[in-house]
């Protein structure tokens, strides 16, 4: 069922410098993962959880994003004339997914600033923030669980995942307490990208958040943190420390997640998703084994 009380916010204003020169003229969110741009997977995840209103935060030279989710009458007419109904359905699917809006971030001042730019659109609605670098396998729903936890607790909900201590410095990391629910913890503290020896746990924040609109008031006075940027983690840490507030909770995700944040992980994501597809896997899996044997 549509979850009309929630909206989704997808920050997509980054420069994508790790993927240059591919991202010189194309947003990194439009890089294909098998045969769909990465951002389409994220929008599909939101709609699968019942969210119909999606706001994408963009920067300069991001017109390809809005074009992708718009209809293309000439292409659709051409496919219809050819009788290629399968391709026509795929083209129309992206423009029929959701009610999609766009707003400019302006200056790139961090994730917290990007979220704050959504305030006018989100209004008094609770909302999900979904980062495009993290793709969650549709067979392992995460956002649905997070929305349910928000409905239950009225608190900020973040997605957590156990991470190898060697990689913990790449994430925001949580200090947690157990609750009466399996795979749900109360977060008592957050630290952004700590050194391995300073990390309070191996539970890292991955790119899914469900936030109450009260987060905007916190972000308004959140000072720039690590990297000189306004960190969403810092705002949530303030919420976690407020004894009179609803708190911050984490849903521990143990499913399949594909990190498209750097070149190696991006390639791994394509390989994993392609190998699992019914139309591609039967041909690819034997070839992978043969190729691996030559290395």
TrEMBL record:
**Reaction catalysis annotation:** alpha-D-glucose 1-phosphate + UTP + H(+) = UDP-alpha-D-glucose + diphosphate
Query: What keywords appear on the UniProt entry?
Result: Nucleotidyltransferase, Transferase
Organism listed in the record: Microbacterium thalassium
Protein name stated in the entry: UTP--glucose-1-phosphate uridylyltransferase
Pfam families documented for this protein: NTP_transferase
GO function term, MF aspect, one: UTP:glucose-1-phosphate uridylyltransferase activity
> SUPFAM superfamilies, from UniProt?
Nucleotide-diphospho-sugar transferases
Concerning its family, UniProt says:
Belongs to the UDPGP type 2 family.
Per UniProt, residues of the Nucleotidyl transferase domain are 7-273
Q: What InterPro entries does the record tag this protein with?
A: GalU_uridylyltTrfase_bac/arc, NTP_transferase_dom, Nucleotide-diphossugar_trans
The enzyme's first-digit EC class, named in words, is transferase
The EC number(s) this enzyme carries:
2.7.7.9
Its domain of life? Bacteria
**Coiled-coil parts of chain:** none
Q: Which GO terms describe its biological process?
A: UDP-alpha-D-glucose metabolic process
């Amino acid at each position: 069922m549509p979850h009309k009380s929630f909206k989704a916010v997808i920050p997509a204003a980054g420069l994508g410098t790790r993927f240059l020169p591919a991202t010189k003229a194309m947003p990194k969110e439009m890089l294909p993962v098998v045969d769909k741009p990465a951002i389409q997977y994220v929008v599909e995840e939101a709609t699968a959880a019942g969210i119909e209103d999606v706001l994408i935060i963009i920067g300069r030279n991001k017109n390809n994003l809005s074009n992708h989710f718009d209809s293309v009458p000439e292409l659709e007419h051409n496919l219809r004339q050819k009788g290629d109904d399968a391709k026509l359905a795929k083209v129309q699917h992206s423009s029929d997914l959701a009610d999609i809006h766009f707003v400019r971030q302006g200056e790139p001042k961090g994730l917290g600033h990007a979220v704050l730019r959504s305030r006018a659109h989100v209004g008094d609605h609770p909302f999900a923030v979904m980062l495009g670098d993290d793709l969650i396998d549709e067979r392992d729903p995460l956002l649905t669980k997070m929305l349910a936890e928000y409905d239950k607790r009225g608190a900020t909900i973040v997605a957590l995942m156990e991470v190898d201590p060697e990689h913990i410095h790449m994430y925001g990391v949580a200090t947690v307490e157990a609750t009466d629910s399996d795979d749900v913890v109360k977060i008592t503290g957050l630290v952004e990208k700590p050194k391995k020896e300073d990390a309070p746990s191996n539970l890292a924040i991955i790119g899914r958040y469900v936030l109450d609109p009260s987060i905007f008031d916190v972000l308004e006075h959140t000072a720039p943190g690590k990297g000189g940027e306004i960190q969403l983690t810092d705002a949530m840490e303030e919420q976690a420390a407020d004894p009179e507030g609803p708190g911050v909770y984490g849903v521990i995700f143990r499913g399949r997640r594909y990190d498209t944040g750097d070149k190696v992980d991006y390639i791994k994501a394509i390989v994993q998703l392609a190998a699992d597809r019914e139309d591609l896997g039967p041909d690819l899996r034997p070839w992978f084994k043969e190729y691996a044997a030559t290395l």
